[in-house]
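dumping this here so i dont lose it
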């Protein structure tokens, strides 16, 4: 009888381990939807529909991953409709979903100083004032929101969303895998694992540099530029404008996700970079006449 009892215990243990493994795989599968879809707009909107269905009909582990998948689709790019969804999930009955939703708010607004997101996090810090672990996550999200006082970003896209940084994306994906067991990792003794995000952090400004005559060094050259929402002009005839609803600023300027910078006086200056991001070297147009 003792032998049969031990064998039944082992059977139950194996079944439990299999169930945990199955749940882990569904968590990773939901994140994989976002990783595949984040490259372009159509895929992102299709992924949104999938994630809504998972939120309604998925198992516990799958629901836990949904807020993180939303954040992965919109890193440093808060979308108003999604803020409502994530705001609702921060008060979910399952605290693991609520914790992931709070962290997702931070990732989605990282470095943007988004006013509505900031007020949501302030309300959450009041709501969870007596729950120290959840309050810790709210503080982390607030820190991410005001990353570098709004001068930094963790968005993995580069070169006007044509490239994705493997380093930044792997850092984000690694952090999100940890969120499958937040209590054992970030909320436990391994809070330093949040440093995984550091290699993904980069400045989001555009600085124009020019080599002055008779000097070897490049020096900062403030020039007028247009910053606006980027427009897809592939295949259009002529030379259509690549941005819409632009504002005119003097460099250095800040670029948000989905924004593009163009030189205001393209006859006078020539940009040596194919995409105006980060440090851009410019030179005088030799054919320009006042």
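and the seq i came up w/
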């Amino acid at each position: 009888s003792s032998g049969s009892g031990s064998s039944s215990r082992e059977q139950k243990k194996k079944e439990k381990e299999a169930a945990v493994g199955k749940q882990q795989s569904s968590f990773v599968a939901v994140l994989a939807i976002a990783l595949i879809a984040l490259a372009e707009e159509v895929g992102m909107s299709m992924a949104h529909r999938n994630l809504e269905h998972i939120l309604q009909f998925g198992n516990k582990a799958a629901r836990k991953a949904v807020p993180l998948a939303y954040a992965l689709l919109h890193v440093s790019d808060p979308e108003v409709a999604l803020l409502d969804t994530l705001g609702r999930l921060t008060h979910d009955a399952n605290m693991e979903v609520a914790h992931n939703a709070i962290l997702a708010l931070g990732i989605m607004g990282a470095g943007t100083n988004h006013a509505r997101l900031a007020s949501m996090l302030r309300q959450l810090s009041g709501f969870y004032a007596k729950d120290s672990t959840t309050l810790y996550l709210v503080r982390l999200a607030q820190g991410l929101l005001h990353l570098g006082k709004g001068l930094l970003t963790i968005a993995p896209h580069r070169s006007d969303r044509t490239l994705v940084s493997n380093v930044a994306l792997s850092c984000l994906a690694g952090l999100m895998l940890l969120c499958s067991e937040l209590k054992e990792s970030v909320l436990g003794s391994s809070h330093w694992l949040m440093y995984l995000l550091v290699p993904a952090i980069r400045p989001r400004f555009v600085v124009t540099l020019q080599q002055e005559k008779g000097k070897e060094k490049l020096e900062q050259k403030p020039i007028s530029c247009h910053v606006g929402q980027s427009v897809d002009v592939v295949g259009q005839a002529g030379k259509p404008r690549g941005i819409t609803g632009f504002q005119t600023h003097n460099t250095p300027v800040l670029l948000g996700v989905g924004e593009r910078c163009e030189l205001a006086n393209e006859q006078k200056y020539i940009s040596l970079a194919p995409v105006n991001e980060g440090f851009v070297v410019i030179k005088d147009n030799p054919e320009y006449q006042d």
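The longest strand covers residues 243-250.
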